[in-house]
Structure formats: structure tokens, C-alpha cells
Design brief:
single chain, mainly alpha, Four Helix Bundle (Hemerythrin (Met), subunit A), 6 helices, globular
Amino acid sequence: MSDLSFRALELAVAALEQGLEEHEQYPQLLTVRDGVIQRFEITMDVSRQILIRVLKETFGYEEASAKKDTFREAAKMGLIADAEAWLGHVTARNQTSHTYDSVIAAQVFAHIPSFLPDARDLLKRLAKHAA
């Protein structure tokens, strides 16, 4: 796995962390909240893409299987701690197309702090597998 780069995920997690910090400074600005939601969406997408690639290239999964059960298979391989938590993140990510709805946007935004530790943990686990 040493030829795989996790830099995109590192940058996405850092951007999400920065967005949450900015929201703490400017909680009244909906544009900042919406930016955090966008960064969550990107971080989720990058996480899933990297996991699919690792499952295929390192563990020999077929692409269809890797895509269909990405988080369950990643948990089996020790790449993530809790598949159910990640499936909850996927559910929140899938709601981001409805962020024009203020109630849904608030729900997704409220979910994001529970995602960040899992994203950080994924980076640590990927680094261990790459070593």
C-alpha cells in the first residue's frame, strides 16, 4: 500500500477542521455552516474513494464488491473501527443534496462533529497499513 497517497484525505480533514473552527467564530453565518457541510461531503467522498482503492489494490477485492460494501469490508480489514458509524456518516452525506432545506442542513451539520474523529482514525489506520 506504500504507493497509495492519502494526501487528499489529509487535506480534506484539515479543511473540515478549519471550517468547524471558523463556524465557532461566526456561528450566525449560514455560508460558513454551508461551507462546513460541503467540506464534510468532500471528506466523505475522498474517504470512500480511498477505501475502495485500498480494498482493491491491497486486499484484492473486486471493484463491485468494494463499492457495494465499502465500509463493512473496511471494518473487517481493520481500516475503520465501526462500520455502522460510517454507514451513519454515509446517510448524513446522502442528505447533503437537500441542504437547501434548513432543517436537513442543521441535522447534517450537527452530525459532522461525530464524523471528524472517525476521519482522523481512518488516517491513522491507513498510515499503519502503509508502513
